[in-house]
Amino acid sequence: MALNTTIEADKNAPPITRILAEFVANHPSRGWSDAVEHEALRTFMNWLGCAVGAAHHESTQAAIRATQFLDPAEQALVLGTNVRVDMTNAALINGISSHTFDFDDTHLKTIIHPAGPVCSAVLALAEKLGSSGREVIDAVVLGIDVSCRIGNMMYPDHYDRGWHITGSTGTLGAAAACARLLGLDADKTQMALGIAASQPVGLREQFGTMTKPFHPGGAAKAGLMSALLAKEGFTASPRALEAPRGFAQVVSTKYAWNEVTDALGQRFEISFNTYKPFACGIVIHPSIDACIQLRDKGVTAGNLERLDLRVHSLVLELTGKKEPKDGLQGKFSVYHGCAAGLIFGQASEDQYADDIVNRADMVAARGKVNAVIDNAISEAAVDATAHLKDGRQVHIHVEHAIGSLQRPMTDGNLETKFSNMANDILGKAQTRKLMDACWSLADASNVRDVIKLATLQGAHAAQLNELATASA
Are residues 162 and 27 in the same domain? Predict the structure, then answer.
């Protein structure tokens, strides 16, 4: 039977697999501006705090138990614990934990969370190799550039088809970053990208479940393994990204090749990274921001009759759960996010605990939220009008939420966020030392010295060991 080949393929695509391989292998160490360098440190620290913060979460503990069943070699740390597993499974678990709270970084142009796959793979490999902090930073910057440039090339079509773009592009970014850390030449880096191209991870159907954070973890593990295979001579198509039956043309009908090559080596996508003040899907952030501003103007859940939101269609497509049943579902409910903003004045991980999601006042408050689609509203904005019981109306329009490029979180904001996640796990003194080590990562002669500070100690360690080894 003949195959139906109705899709028009681009048979003259530029050799982006080779172009990216040469870029990753040959770009000079610290070949970027001070601003890019500082953003790399902010990205690394934010990712590390998210990974440590979710060390006790049930999804992280389940992943630990599953990997320990394999009797792994103790090569790398599961961050925020004293559990050690082989480096590929450390990449998996740390990738899962870093995205569990949905509190990690976001490249807003593509909605990619780039650090989860890239940093999780790099740090696990770096611990095994004893790499320097400088080598880690170089790998992270270049890996994130690959991931986000591929994302720029395909977004939004790839995402609209149902792919979780963090995982699908993250595999490529993790492979590139690990190839760099291993010192692979352009030929072998090209193979690493080719191997990774056959392993896109992540379906949007999984949002609201533990499998969503599995995506960056799975991407980290696959990318690391791709680089290790390439190092040993494993082969792949040299045109795996651009060929008519290659990655881009299979998973998307949009493939703007120039998005990969424009200003390559001059503009770095990590420069456009942002950091979440709220522990939920990024498209909810404008609405939460608006509700916090309404709260500051005297609007409360008690005096509110109805809250009308005008939002972009993506908000309800991704976060339209009106009656979330647990914290993971709550992260995909604009209604719950608004209730948290009104009642607590914040939406950190504590506001997404299962008991808070099901608390009577939260259920009542989110029942007052009415969200409608307005095509004139951008993905980054919201128009909110609170109708009060006394007849008054209070209006807020948020064009760009706190945490966006236009209203970025400061270094101090990031430290506060990190501390809030890590203090209860590592203790305040150790958390402070870990943050300082992140800021001075470029000076670390061996990244293992930094990783030691992310190790659980004392009574917490005994408790987590008991949880990790218990039967599921």
Answer: yes
